[in-house]
Amino acid sequence: MTDLLKHRTVFTIQKFSDRAHYRQGQPFARSVFEKNVLLNEGITELQQLLTGSTLGRSYAQANAYLGVGDSTASSGVATSTGLLSTANTLYVQVSTGYPTLVSQTTTWRSVFSSAQANFAWREFTLSNRAGSTGDNLNRRVSNQGTKVAGQTWTLDLAITWS
Hints:
Number of strands: 10
Structural class: mainly beta
Strand order of the largest sheet: 2-1-10-7-6
Radius of gyration: 15 Å
Low-confidence stretches: none
Number of domains: 1
């Protein structure tokens, strides 16, 4: 018998041309992409939370931030510490009501308003603090287009554990 802990990661971006279309739930595009690498700092944080360590900081709504950046550096390195861009990054706090827990899937969502993250979206992460000071659970590189002023985009991260 082999012990395995698996996770399946799905990112979803919904792109709205403006705030009115966001409120109406009418995106002009939707993108779904899978896979990521769990980062060592995030794995350590999960272990601390699992064992009740006072050092652990959860990925609950009050602490959770989804981050986007424009770096194209490889995402296959577990020793990374979050977003790698030195020019354009933004971490936005997870929306009220998130994360959700359904069966074995945890989902986080952040809304990037018309004035936020107006640059190429190429890297993605979940952190338990705003900015680069948090412990990032994962990182994924995938070119998802360029957000422009006036648009509202949502980013969902769903992880199914098995």
